[in-house]
Amino acid sequence: MVLSANDKTNVKGVFAKIGGHAEEYGAETLERMFATYPQTKTYFPHFDLSHGSAQIKSHGKKVAAALVEAVNHIDDIAGALSKLSDLHAQKLRVDPVNFKLLGHCFLVVMAIHHPAALTPEVHASLDKFLCAVGNVLTAKYR
Amino acid sequence: MVHWTAEEKQLITGLWSKVNVEECGAEALARLLIVYPWTQRFFASFGNLSSPTAISGNPMVRAHGRKVLTSFGEAIKNLDNIKATFSKLSELHCEKLHVDPQNFRLLGDILIIVLASHFARDFTPACQFAWQKLVGVVAHALARKYH
Hints:
The complex is a heterodimer of chains A (about 140) and B (about 150).
Chain A lengths: L4 H14 L3 H15 L17 H19 L4 H4 L1 H11 L4 H17 L6 H19 L4
Chain B lengths: L5 H11 L4 H15 L16 H6 L1 H19 L4 H4 L1 H9 L6 H18 L5 H19 L4
Helix pairs in contact in B: 1-8, 2-4, 2-7, 7-8
Organism (chain B): Glaucidium brasilianum
GO molecular function (chain B): haptoglobin binding; heme binding; metal ion binding; organic acid binding; oxygen binding; oxygen carrier activity; peroxidase activity
GO biological process, one term (chain B): hydrogen peroxide catabolic process
């Protein structure tokens, strides 16, 4: 699965629309993921996962920043996220299935805040991009 | 048997009463075919599926999307008996249509995104939880008679 030129344009375009809300959307994505897929909470036993928690906000900011970094280096996501990939492989070891769940919740947040921007084509491109990010983060697992 | 809390039932039926089945059904099926193009394999007889625009405007896609979502509504009317409600449809999807059950999960997730785009903040995390549970139960029921 390869990102076409169109995919890259679509993803950059929709992230430009997100603008300064990326951190907010990161937190919302996490909150939805924890609410919808409770098993994902098992990776955060040390967190306060209640609504509006400072830890979710802070972690959402990190997740959003990583996605933005990937968008800004969309021609070399593996390079841009190499350290994060190492971290997930060696330390965090989040089961690969969970990246799909996070990606799905991010799409839901996008649909809520930018329904007009999430045309079927952009939806497809964004889904591919999120898959690519997940693949990079799990690439060194074994 | 699936256990639904009173709140979950309310979140499901409450949202459903506001859903335009024709519009949402058409949009969900079109998005499935666009976002996961390999799903087009089941719709060779549907005519022009050559581009997202063609797919979204295709009358057969729209009609079939409406049919699928209407059928989904039957699950909502029979939340305590979804297995029985979809027993025959499950046999049909296995024996005649030969649809990999993974496709039910894909469509379920697409439907969630379509609902989110229509209902925005009303589609709360609690609402998403109830609906993800529902689409999962429906997918499971449709796969149950496979052999």
